[in-house]
Amino acid sequence: MPNQDPWTTLDAALGALRAHDADVDTVDRIRERCLAQLAAARRRQERRRSRLAAHRRWLEPAFALGLAALYLAAIVPRALALLR
């Protein structure tokens, strides 16, 4: 069995394939679908950001107030013990 160069057989096989060009209508339709999906993803991301911002608007002050209350609850008895 003779040794064949694998590149020549590959070139021959690739040469047998026909070139495929998509028609303009298909390309436009695919582009429109992709752009619609990207726009929908951007809208979802913006809604999620605004929802997180709304939570953050009241959650951070509430958390800070809770920590301040805990600090005062711990420090006031100590201060009163020093004054006695």
Summarize the structure.
The protein has 84 residues and is an all-alpha fold. The chain has helices at 6-16, 24-83.
Helix-strand blueprint:
Layout: H1 6-16, H2 24-83
Number of helices: 2
Task: Please state roughly what percent of the residues sit in beta strands, choosing from under 5%, 5-15%, 15-25%, 25-35%, 35-45% or over 45%.
Answer: under 5%
The figure for the number of domains is 1
Shape: elongated
* Spatial gap, N to C terminus: 107 Å
Mean pLDDT: 86
Number-wise, the strands total 0
Name the structural class.
mainly alpha
Question: What fraction, in percent, of the residue positions are helical?
Answer: over 70%
Major beta-sheet overview: none
Question: How do the helices and strands follow one another from N- to C-terminus?
Answer: HH
Describe the structure.
The protein is mainly α. The protein has helices at about 5-15, 25-84. The longest helix is centred in the middle third of the chain and has 60 residues, at about 25-84. It is elongated and about 100 Å long. The N and C termini lie far apart (about 105 Å). The mean pLDDT is about 85.
